Amino acid sequence: SVIAVMIGGKGSADVLNAASGAPSSAPLSAPSDYGDKINSKASTSMISGDFTSTASDPDGRDDGRVHEWRPPYPRLCAYHDVNSLGAAWSLGLCPSWVEMRPTGASQAQSPTDDDNGDGKQNDLLTSCPNFRNEIGCEPIRRVALSRQTKELVVDAAEVEGWQREHTAAEAGVLEDVSNVYLGGRLCAARQPKNVIEPQDLGGYYYRHCFAGRPHIEYFGMDDELGPIAVSIVKESDDSHSQVGERKRKSGGSSSGDKSAVPVTSMIYRMVIRISELKPIRLAIPEEMLSEPAETRSTRALMRELIELTCPRIPFSCLRPALQSHKIEEMLMKMDEQPMYTRYKIGVLLCMREQSTEEQMYNNEFSTPAFEEFLDFLGSRVRLKGFDAYKGGLDTRGDTTGTHSVYVEYQAHDVMFHVSTLLPYTSNNRQQLSRKRHIGNDMVTVIFQEPGALPFSPLAVRSHFQHVFIIVRVNEACSENTTYSVAVSRSKDVPSFGPPLPPGATFTKCADFHDWLLTKIINAENAVHRSKKFATMAARTRREALRDLAENYVGPHANDGAARIASRLLGGSVKRKGDKGVHKKPAMASTRGALSWLVDVHDHSLNTRVSCVLGLSADALILLERPSGACIFCTPTHSIIGWANTEMGLRLYYDHSDSMLLRCVTESGTDEELSQLLERLQAVTKGDEAKEVVLRRPSTAHPWGFHLHDEGVVTDVEMYQTAWKAGLRQGSRIVEVEGQNVATLSIEDLAVIVRERDCMRLLLLSPAPDGSPRRGCEDPNCPAVKGNEQMLTPDAFAKQPLTHFTYQEMFRLRNREYSQGSSSGSFEERSSYRESTSASKNNLCGTNSGPTLSSRVAATFGIGGGGACGLPPRGFGLGAAHSSASVHDHICTLLNPPKPLNRALSDELLRLSFSGNDTLFGTARSARESISSELAHCQVVISQLMEDKRQLENSVQKLTDELAMERKAHDDTRAELDRLKAVDS
């Protein structure tokens, strides 16, 4: 993916200097005002009810209220998680600004609102005021330029209902402090799509890094900010050696050699809790402080850390906490409060011609279709004596029914409140014994039978039911059972995944089971993020902080006369001019996320979006302003390079997908850009791209290089056009004539190559070990061809390594491909077999006509063929050989042009041609390879035929047994009929 960065609205120096006469580049699509200077004051840094704002100004207003929170040193503070980064930049909801009003289903009946709904409806669901519907036509927001977004432009009116990419939705912790490798080195298209959107997983930061270790706590009360709690711990950090080791393994650039030296430094980890705001978890390297910690007191150190991280906190109000283990327990409970692993979900049966709440509650008995759905949803459990999560049901006296439905999914406990399994009261139409459970659930599943009327939240009266998931059965209790799904959520509830596919219909299978449970869990998590519940949680946190600040603080420590005088003066004894003596931030010294204010080009909307970019040692994320929603996330190992152009800095990741952004600065310098490039060099395996211009005398002259279908250069012909221009084996082409390779098909690329005699390429150099830079460790990833089939890390690890290394592709071209693996080229496996067979015939002195490889090359008007003993190199851009004889190949290899200085065809030089014996030895090897492959195919075919015969025998045996069972069944039925006749 490509990210473009500009400083102060001015284009930075173009480091991609093309040779004179190069064709003009086609710029990436960008809005007309993309080059405007960022100096207007249009938006607020705090959410203002308009979640779709794309303003880029750092300052702003919301109903006359100004919020000025911003990190004073964003490149000194390394943030631990997404929520901490958003809180430091004042992103997201401010609970104190929320106006209390009816929420949930009751909000649809509020006469004070003029919201008429989104107008989306179908047979399952109708449009409802103050609710937003999801029926399967919602777009997925893809910020980067890729195959999915090259022609996608979403109407701005649809923004409220769009879905995020699964990689952005699951972004949580940015700094791994658990030292556990979670795997997942594949591209985003191969990752699981049904992801449980994380809650505030950074809440475990205090437990992992503070609890049980020597650390200090400071509590205080401020008239403006309210209760405050600050925790600080000092620990060693081996980020230098970790980053260097990662770059050595991944073949990173040499610019990170300094960080490769094992260096142990010290860092200060902090947790800043301010009243109702979300906690800020971060780390600061000790070397960034103005003075060594050994030369000053704890209080002076604390003061400087507060000034670096959050200067709005008046240090004079903070006092040291008492030494008590209870304080640790209270802080851990407070930080981990927003994380939920237990859910209670309501399930209502809606029969034919029903749609109202009263009708659904008064369905006394279940139906076969409903029973089938409940068995599919979870396990039927006996409530009496049930020792797992009970979800508010009675597990002693059966007062809430005898059975219920329960499921444990990915460490989450879900108890379903099923209407037909709860007690039924015949003389009470409201069915309060059922409604007191289901009516207090945040998420409700409405099961509709065929013929049911469309559901509307207007039919439900509840302040707690915020999300309704409607499931309608089709062809119930059959082999062709399917379920149609629709979702309705309160407009205060943010959208959540996984998204509904087009058509919104699922077959009864394990994939739908996982999708539905993931959707249910994400729905309740999204309700907790809504204004009402976020406000209640914030107030609970504020009261807990107030209790700590009032009851668990001690007196100031006696730090000496100078400290006492400083305290009496109400500030630091440092002179005002001493404040800016902090050292230049070291981009490789921390694993947490450093931050930049940027403008990003959103390819889904074709517009500019203001974001905060966070770049840690593990991930790069973009948080939209002012909502704080994560709209993009990619791991750093997937970033393969960048290019600093007149449009800005372009960042490439995965399969050369790209994103465009620019830094926003008030100083008008390129300092932020330089720091961003330095950080990219330190934490990724990518490198800066360079521009190469190829020229040929005419379109009939070959270019002289061969491409893999991802734009990887697999071979360069000696002394041809590409070789003279500097193209080398292992390079990766990311742009051709200003067009991203990720958006081009094979046919599009062939047209460009065939019709031009001057071609401008933007390419990434190979890694130090000669392999191409890859964002996905699968060289034959099907996502390149549009197949996004998921491959789990376990399945990926079980595949043969020889098919997933380019070194084998480069150096062992004459080795046969294993059964079931693709050739990794533009041509299919059949092309390789046919071409190899033709090469065999040529070596034997026969002429078998043009191979498939040469026919493809002739079709595209480019050179084809390959060297002796080598299989075809896929989409050949090499020199055409006028003769197919062995003698011509030998002469070409033994008498190359002088001087002999091969840069990329080194493997041909390694073939020591020492006479005819070597030549015919190579021919014999090729012939033996063909024979071996044919023998292997014959063995496989024999095994398949034997398996087929065994399966046919098994089918016949089962058919005979079934016939016998039917006969026995008929005999039993006849005997029963006879006995009934005798009794009568």
Short description:
Residues 331-548 form the Rap-GAP domain. With 984 residues, the protein is α+β, with helices and mostly antiparallel strands.
Helix and strand topology:
Blueprint: E1 78-79, H1 82-88, E2 131-134, E3 140-141, E4 163-164, H2 166-169, H3 205-209, E5 216-222, E6 226-237, H4 239-250, H5 257-260, E7 265-274, E8 280-285, H6 298-309, E9 318-320, H7 325-335, E10 342-350, H8 357-361, H9 368-377, E11 379-382, E12 403-409, E13 412-418, H10 432-438, E14 443-448, E15 467-474, E16 482-490, E17 505-507, H11 510-528, H12 531-551, H13 561-569, E18 594-602, E19 607-615, E20 619-624, E21 630-635, E22 639-645, E23 648-653, E24 657-663, H14 671-683, E25 687-688, E26 690-695, E27 705-707, E28 713-716, H15 721-725, E29 732-736, E30 739-740, H16 746-755, E31 758-764, H17 793-798, H18 806-811, H19 829-843, H20 852-860, E32 875-877, H21 886-894, H22 906-910, H23 916-983
Parallel strand pairs: 3-4, 10-13, 10-14, 14-15, 22-25
Antiparallel strand pairs: 1-8, 2-16, 5-6, 5-9, 6-7, 7-8, 11-12, 12-13, 15-16, 16-17, 18-19, 18-24, 19-20, 20-21, 22-23, 23-24, 26-31, 27-28, 27-32, 29-30, 29-31
Helix pairs in contact: 19-23
Organism: Pristionchus entomophagus
Keywords: Coiled coil, GTPase activation, Phosphoprotein
Protein name: Rap-GAP domain-containing protein
